[in-house]
Amino acid sequence: MTSQQPGEASRTLDYELFQSALQAFGGSHLFRDPEDWINHDNPYRRAIRPQVFRYLDFSKPLARAQLLDYSSLAANRLLLTVYEQDFLLLPQKDFPAKRADYEAFYQDPTKMQGEVLRPFLERYLFAFLDSEIRITGAWTARTAAAYFEDARARCLASDDNPAMNAILGSADREHAARTFLIQLAGDFLVESSAMARNLLGSYGPLQSELFKVVIDEFGYGVYEKKHSTLFQRILRHYDLHTDVHCYWQFYLSSSLLLNNYYNWICRDHSRFFRYLGAIYFAETTFIKTCQQMADMLRSVFGADSEVEYFLEHVHIDGHHSRMVYDRLVAPAIDEFGVEVIPDIVRGFEESKLLAELADSDFCEQVSWADQGEHFKALHDPIFQRIQQGTLQPPVQTFVEPRHELSVTHVHDGDELCHIESGTMNFYTGLGRYTPLHAGEGTVIQRNRLHGAIIDSDECVYHIYTIRDHEACLS
Amino acid sequence: MPVVTFTMPRHHDLVVIGESRYFLVRTGGQDVFLVNGVCPHRGGPLHLGEVDETGAVVCPWHGRRVPLKSLIRRAIPLIVHGHRATAVIADAADAGAGHDTRTHAPLRLARTAPRGSCNTPQCP
Q1: Do β-strands B84-88 and B3-7 pair in parallel, antiparallel, or remain unpaired?
Q2: Terminus of chain B with fewer CB atoms < 10 Å: N or C?
Q3: Would the CA dihedral through A305, A306, A310, A316 be positive or negative?
Q4: A22: which residues sit within 8 A by CB, 6+ positions away?
């Protein structure tokens, strides 16, 4: 007989409630697997692969090393969907045909189920930050000022931008640049919606100062000047759609995580001081990175490329960085005491960590997409070893009809895809794929986003769980 | 006011910044504190001391007992992220001269009362 610790029974019960809500949430018609890679002007439809939920365990928080695993991607897709039930999203056209989806997205039971899921998913995704970043010591207004001055100087001095380097070094620079814009689109098309969660309430002069930043983001009520409108112009210029979450399937886990982080710290008002640090990081780092993004776009697409969104931020974020520090961070310390400093510092450091993770994940994805032929070529020697019996990995077999689409996902270890008959187009990004015919296949690299669509009347293929493709070849 | 970034030492706990000595105290809650390493009595090396049963660091020079709690209460502002640490040094005028971490064994709990204790009162 085992004894239960105090609270254990209630936690178990709570997780059962979560699992029940998860199954019910996933049962909504909104979240069924789509038949296309892109989401056509319907912000309520989200591909979250509910059929996989029963194999996932969200009860124990993710460790840093697991942040790019499949359960993280699934949790991030779910959590952003739940958060955005708070935002008013309307399609650009043909609302009557989408009205049923609109109502299902915002009304119970979907809304109520999302509220049950949210705290579990937040704990699952963000608990690692507490152990990853430790902040101690007797902070004062002076030491905080020294820290932020140093941090700001470092942000502005750094010329290194791994994501821009990856794009400029890619074998397909235009595709890499569009992939980057797609990562930004998840947040930028609803720009400042997360931070606007902090506008309501009553908290003195800070509230009015934050409002000034938000009205800049919203273009002072002039639609053409609204930052999300400027970003739509960017997307349009580079032949991308402008509707919210059109490219949902191509968001990387880390892009979703960063987006969710800002929603998390803004939705939970006990994390307001953490948010102040996070927004200070975002406004400060954008001064430099937006110039680098504009330079990158001009380099890839030509000198007359559309870059106004980024240049606007180079300019306005110089003001916003100063405004956030002088009128939000420093006054918050004066008004609410030195006890809030560790929270503010934590917000700065956490958003920096998540931005670095997003950069690294993006760079890996660019490299993965560039090496389609390389990973295809690795199929033959590994499959040969499987046929010879040298390798005996677990295998699953699938039989799928023409146009069957496998929603983008990642694996927690390397896998080998082998086509027995028919043709599969194996996607590593928007519009970028490697055709795989009978007898061919590819290594699927751990944590790399991919999907597939069948391009023959039928395709029979096998997925071998090889875990480490390099070990298979050694 | 210098902001110093350094790699967290794995096998020792002394951090020398400029000409000032600090040491790292790791608590059971996994938090890490960077505290003053200079004994308030005669400037002895607190990082070489032992922690007695009352939770005080016993300075190896004259046995002055400095409560860890008071050292932690006045700890240097510190951010630890993985193996990287950032400290803001408010009271070290010479801290701009650079930093170093030097090897010695971490603080350990004394099995017996330290010998040669001096009679000066404990730090607050």
Answers
A1: antiparallel
A2: C
A3: positive
A4: A53, A58, A78, A113, A117
Determine the residue among B73, B88, B91 to mutate to test chain A binding: the one whose Cβ has the most chain A Cβ atoms within 10 Å.
Answer: B88
Residue type, A187: D
- A341-370 and A272-301 helices, crossing angle to 10°: 30
Distance separating alpha carbons of residues A105 and A87, to the nearest angstrom: 11
Instruction: Give the closest residue to A76 by CA, choosing from A141, A2, A126, A149.
Output: A126
Which helix (H) or strand (E) segment holds residue A317: the answer is helix A308-324
Residue B116: closest CA among B68, B61, B37, B65: B61
- With an 8 Å Cβ cutoff, is A65 touching chain B? no
Q: Can you tell me the ipTM of this complex?
A: 0.83
- Collapse the DSSP code of B50 into the 3-class scheme (helix H, G, I; strand E, B; otherwise coil) and give the result: strand
Mean pLDDT score, A18-45: 96
Cβ neighbors of A255 (< 8 A, separation 6 or more) are: A183, A186, A187, A358, A361, A362
Rounded to whole angstroms, how far apart are CA atoms A364 and A371? 11
Instruction: Give pLDDT tens digits for A337-377.
Output: 999 999 999 999 999 999 999 999 999 999 999 999 999 99
Say how far apart CA A263 and CA A76 lie, in whole Å: 12
Nearest to B81 among A138, A149, A353 (CB): A353
Contacts of A149 in chain B (CB under 8 A): 3
Yes or no: say if A421 and A460 are a contact pair by the CB < 8 Å rule: yes
**Where does residue B84 rank: exposed (0-12), middle (13-18), buried (19+ CB within 10 A)?**
exposed
Neighbouring residues of A453: CB distance < 8 A, sequence distance ≥ 6: A37, A403, A404, A405, A406, A424, A425, A427, A433
Give bridge partners of residue B25 from the DSSP assignment: B33
Provide φ and ψ at A395, rounded to 5°: -140, 145
Q: What ranges in A337-392 are assigned the alpha helix state H?
A: 341-370, 372-377, 379-388
DSSP code for A459? E
Which residues, at least 6 apart from A339, have a Cβ–Cβ distance to it below 8 Å? none
Segment A90-93 long-range contacts (CB within 8 Å, at least 24 positions apart)? A90/A43, A91/A41, A91/A42, A91/A43, A91/A243, A92/A41, A92/A242, A92/A243, A93/A41
| Residue entry with tokens 């650079």 | B98
A137 in contact with B, Cβ within 8 Å: yes
